[in-house]
Write a structure and sequence with these properties.
The protein is an alpha/beta fold and 275 residues long. The protein has 2 domains: 155 residues, 3-Layer(aba) Sandwich (D-Maltodextrin-Binding Protein, domain 2), CATH 3.40.190; 102 residues, 3-Layer(aba) Sandwich (D-Maltodextrin-Binding Protein, domain 2), CATH 3.40.190. It is built from 11 helices and 11 strands. It has a 6-stranded mixed β-sheet with strand order 2-1-3-10-4-11. Strand 1, helix 2 and strand 2 form a beta-alpha-beta unit. Helix 1 packs across helix 10. It is globular.
C-alpha cells in the first residue's frame, strides 16, 4: 500500500500549482495540454509592436492549455500603412482580438470595428532610445542632455505609431528643437526602428522600449527623461466581426492574468494585472 504524502507536502504542491490553475481558470481553458483542438475555433489576433514580444512569449502556453490555434497579424496601432491594424480591419481581414494603444483602440470602438465595453488595459509602455551595437551611447539622462543628443545626431529614426506620433507632434516642440531636428528624422513604416538602426540607416532610434529590446544589432540606451516621457497603455478588445467572441475573451483574460505578469515584465512593459 502506498504511503500517503504528509500534509505539508500536499500543501506545497497545491500552492505551487495555484498560479497555473488560476491562469487556466481565468482563460476558461481546458486541461493542461489542451486535448483535441475544438473544430473551427482558431483565434485571429492583430497586435501592435508594443505588446508583440510579450504576446509571442505568452501565446504558446495559451495554445497548449486551450487546444486552440492562435493566428497572428502584426501592425502599427495607427496610421495608413498597408499592414497597420486600422488598415487590416478596413480590408476586413479576420480578427477576433485586437491589441494596440488604448486611444487607437477606442477609435476603433467609435468606428464600430471593436465591441464597446470589451476593452481591457494590459500594460503600460514607455519610450526609449537605441544606437547601433558598439556605437557610443549618447547621454539622454536629462532633458538638456536629450536636446544636445538630438541636435548632434546625424539621423534619427522613429516609428509610425504611438511613440513616433508623440515624437513628431509633441516632443520636439516641447524641447524647442523641431526646426533643427525634424528634417533629419525619418518616420519608419512597416518595420521596427531598431532594425533600421542595426543596419546603419539611422544613427539614433526612438520607439517603445519593448519594441527595441528584442532587436539584435543595437544597444538600448535608456528611456526618455521622466519630464518628457510619454507612457502609453496597450489594451485588448474583441473585434465586432469576431467569429469566436467567447474564445477571444478567454485569450484576453489569460493575457491579463497575474500568472502572465512576470513574462510581460521581462519584455520591458509594466503589466497592469499586477497593480
Amino acid at each position: 500500500m502506498t504511503k500517503p504524502l504528509p500534509s505539508p507536502f500536499l500543501a506545497l504542491t497545491r500552492r505551487a500549482a495555484l498560479p497555473l490553475i488560476a491562469a487556466l481558470a481565468l482563460a476558461g481553458c481546458g486541461t493542461l495540454g489542451g486535448g483535441n483542438k475544438p473544430a473551427g475555433e482558431d483565434i485571429h489576433v492583430m497586435t501592435s509592436g508594443g505588446f508583440t514580444a510579450a504576446y509571442n512569449d505568452l501565446r504558446p502556453e495559451f495554445e497548449r492549455s486551450s487546444g486552440r490555434t492562435v493566428k497572428t497579424a502584426y501592425g502599427a496601432s495607427m496610421g495608413n500603412a498597408t499592414d497597420s491594424i486600422p488598415s487590416r480591419l478596413a480590408r476586413n481581414e479576420p480578427a477576433d482580438v485586437v491589441i494596440l494603444a488604448r486611444p487607437a483602440l477606442d477609435a476603433l470602438v467609435a468606428q464600430g470595428k471593436v465591441v464597446a465595453g470589451s476593452q481591457v488595459d494590459l500594460v503600460r509602455s514607455s519610450i526609449g532610445f537605441a544606437v547601433r551595437k558598439g556605437a557610443p551611447k549618447p547621454d539622454i539622462g536629462t532633458v538638456d542632455a536629450l536636446k544636445r543628443t538630438l541636435l548632434a545626431a546625424p539621423s534619427i529614426a522613429y516609428s509610425a505609431s504611438a511613440s513616433g506620433t508623440y515624437y513628431e507632434t509633441e516632443l520636439l516642440k516641447k524641447l524647442g528643437i523641431e526646426d533643427q531636428v525634424k528634417p533629419k528624422s525619418k518616420r519608419i513604416l512597416s518595420e521596427r526602428v531598431g532594425t533600421v538602426v542595426a543596419r546603419g540607416d539611422a544613427a539614433l532610434g526612438l520607439q517603445q522600449v519593448s519594441e527595441l529590446l528584442p532587436i539584435e544589432g543595437i544597444d538600448y540606451i535608456g528611456p526618455l527623461p521622466a519630464e518628457v516621457q510619454r507612457v502609453t497603455v496597450f489594451s485588448a478588445g474583441i473585434a465586432t466581426a469576431s467569429k469566436q467572441p467567447d474564445a477571444a475573451g478567454q485569450l484576453i483574460r489569460y493575457l491579463n492574468s497575474p500568472a502572465a505578469a512576470p513574462t510581460i515584465a521581462k519584455t520591458g512593459l509594466e503589466p497592469l494585472s499586477a497593480r
